[in-house]
Specification:
By secondary structure, the chain is an alpha/beta fold. It is 46% helix and 15% strand. An eight-stranded parallel β-barrel has the order 1-2-3-4-5-6-7-8, surrounded by eight helices. The radius of gyration is 18 Å and the shape is globular. The structure holds 3-hydroxypyruvic acid and magnesium ion. The site of 3-hydroxypyruvic acid has 7 residues, from helix 10.
Length: 267
């Protein structure tokens, strides 16, 4: 991928994009995932182990590997979103957005005036995207995506309001938290029928509103289902799970070894 290829353009053109998902803070992991063929890499600063320095290095190596740069910020940490777009993130995913006010505050934190209040100094983003200051200023609000996570009953009920925020580019569904919220904490069922039905409705409303829809998936089957529902940005492949799976498969080749009965990496 050239420096001049932008995630926002692909998603707005309706192209499906698969992102791997990183919890480990070793910056070479995103590079390896990019080189292995993931078109985008998401650094998870909500549930992952990243500090800011590791995220900065990880974006640089993601770019070296030729993939698009996405980050999920901690809950309510809009200041972190602003810092990460300065460091070259092309898309920020904000978890647990439950109202129009939260969606608006988040989206405005990563858009320059008049759309928002992002403060100027994208010296790393310009380098990684191959743009001058002037080009970056002209393009940043369009090229830098703000996606609000829909992952509670409250958010589903407020979806029309959330989608009415002009500065918000789209949504990203968290099916695990959504299933927990829908069942009032009694069932973690990201792949359940009810969760899938609601995910379908969320995608339909989002597309009707002319916004982008993304969703967290853990399998190829879920990615296919998501695409058929209208989603275009799908996660697939969490670094810890990929490593766990690869290590077990590698050891399987040694015929005299007993397979490990240790707990598998989950999510
Ligand atoms: C969820 O499924 O709740 C997520 O946030 C995925 O990371
Ligand atoms: Mg979640």
């Amino acid at each position: 991928m050239s420096e001049r290829s932008f995630l926002a353009d692909k998603l707005r053109a309706g192209q499906p994009v698969i992102t791997s998902w990183c919890l480990l803070s070793a910056p070479m992991v995103p590079e390896l995932l990019a080189r292995a063929g993931y078109e985008a890499v998401t650094l998870d600063l909500q549930h992952g182990m990243f500090d800011f320095d590791a995220a900065v290095d990880s974006f640089a190596l993601t770019a070296l590997g030729g993939a698009h740069r996405i980050a999920r910020i901690p809950v309510g940490d809009n200041a972190m979103g602003s810092r990460l777009v300065d460091m070259g993130a092309e898309c920020i995913i904000a978890p647990m957005i439950n109202s129009r006010a939260e969606a608006e505050a988040f989206a405005r934190s990563i858009k320059y005036p008049p759309a928002g209040e992002r403060s100027w100094s994208p010296y790393r983003a310009t380098m990684l995207s191959g743009q001058s200051n002037e080009e970056y200023l002209e393009n940043a609000n369009r090229q830098t995506l703000a996606l609000a996570m829909i992952e509670t009953r409250e958010a589903v009920e407020a979806l029309d309001d959330i989608l009415s925020v002009p500065e918000l580019d789209g949504i990203f569904v968290g099916p695990s938290d959504l299933s927990l919220s829908l069942s009032q904490g009694s069932a973690l069922d990201p792949d359940g029928e009810e969760t899938a039905r609601i995910c379908g409705e969320i995608a339909a409303k989002t597309r009707e509103a002319g916004k982008l829809a993304g969703i967290f998936c853990l399998s190829g089957e879920k990615v296919e289902q998501a695409i058929s529902q209208g989603y275009r940005l799908m996660s697939h492949g969490v670094d810890t799970m990929l490593l766990d799976h690869a290590a077990r498969s590698a050891l399987d080749e040694i015929s005299w070894l007993e397979p490990s009965d240790g707990p598998k990496a989950g999510y």
